[in-house]
Amino acid sequence: MDIYVIMQVIILFGAIFLGVRLGGMGIGYAGGLGVVLLSLGMGMFPGQIPWDVILIIMSAIAAICALQLAGGLDYLVRIAENILRKNPKHINYLAPTVTYFLTILAGTGHTAFSMIPVIVEVAKSENIKPSVPLSIAVVASQIGITASPVSAAVVAMSGFLEPFGVSYPTLLGICISTTFIAVMITAFIMSTFTNNDLSSDPVYQERLAAGYVAPPREKNVDFHLKPGAKKSVLIFLIGIICIVFYATAISKNIGIFGRNDAIVGFMMIIAAAITFFCKLDTAQLVNTSTFKSGLSACVCVLGVAWLGDTFVKGHIPEIKAMASSMVTAYPFLLAVAFFFASTLLYSQAATTQALVPAVILALGITPENTGSVYIIIASFAAVSALFVLPTYPTLLGAVQMDDTGSTRIGHLVFNHPFFIPGVLAIAISVALGFVVAPLML
């Protein structure tokens, strides 16, 4: 490895580290800085900007922020809250189930924010450490991205693998079955083999004695749905069903209206229909929380995926030689690579966009040689390791909203309650993937 390669690696990880320190859209800013330094400073050619991923995120957020403004998200959260409150003893299983399916429906894990306060209150009422259901629920909201039919990560993965015979419904079938079962197994392990007793937590006792812990709140009986809430959910669900059916019916190489274009188009139709039939004030759409988080996601993917593609394309021969020998001999190492890359890239879509094309080349996958495709699909869930560094928004939200103090970040940074369930969920998902994927392909 010569000095230039060492400098390029330093710039790559330096930009990522700076982005993590800045947080939020700063990750995207730092990615753009890294591209400029690699291009102008190191003579590398700029990689491809992931326009397809960015446009899909934008169109999905366009529909979801209309759904939120119409009251549809509040309606879905209300349904989820009723489920949790009616079955409080099963909070460790129901909380991740709710956040998982909200993520699948909306294509973003940020929907978990709305459920965090409810999970805390229900857990307190049953003397269960909120950290247990919260940690599993946050991880479920992240891993659910790899099973959502409208997430940018799944759409990108489908686009990469479709030329090699992997259909859209097959990819979804593998991902949904393996990740959800993994989340439930993780919930069982955390419920059975960890201390769930809130009263035994010394930090909770200290905060309780100091008056920092509020008593569990009852259900908000004054909650009123907006007039168009149910209508907006119906429109959104019909639109999602149309997207799935259309994407299933066509091939990327057939027809004038491809899958990516269809997803963007259908999402815009959903947004227009909700806006029209629910009589929304379009000036208020930009003030919704989903619009703001969506813009942040676009900037992050723009900078980080562009940086990753710039570095990877500059070293394809070396990466291909190293990865082909290692992954062919030890297929699970691809999941390890996805895991650590997503920890740094901070986005399932960015990780997928940056690494999968290089992996396809490294494994020698062609339309005539698709024997190794299952390795990529089985390892896909590992791009969800956004919980490793305790800086992700939903993770921080869970820490801040748990007034019992059970959900806390340790002095060693990595010793936080999300790490073990996150690693378990991904490891089990990947293990199941290596069983299920070959059977379904």
Compact overview of the structure:
With 441 residues, the protein is an all-alpha fold.
Protein model, in words:
The protein has helices at 3-22, 26-41, 51-69, 72-86, 91-106, 116-125, 131-143, 152-161, 168-193, 202-209, 229-249, 259-277, 289-314, 316-329, 333-345, 348-362, 373-379, 393-401, 419-440. The protein starts with a helix and ends with a helix. The protein is mostly helical and 441 residues long. The protein is 68% helix and 0% strand. The protein is globular and about 60 Å long.
Question: What are the key terms here?
Answer:
single chain, 441 residues, mainly alpha, 68% helix
Distance between the termini: 39 Å
Q: What is the ordering of alpha helices and beta strands?
A: HHHHHHHHHHHHHHHHHHH
| Count of helix runs | 19
Average pLDDT across residues?
Answer: 85
Unreliably modeled segments: none
The strand count comes to 0
Structural class category: mainly alpha
| Major beta-sheet overview | none
Helix fraction, binned, reads: 55-70%
Beta-strand fraction estimate: under 5%
Cα radius of gyration in angstroms: 22 Å
Rough shape?
globular
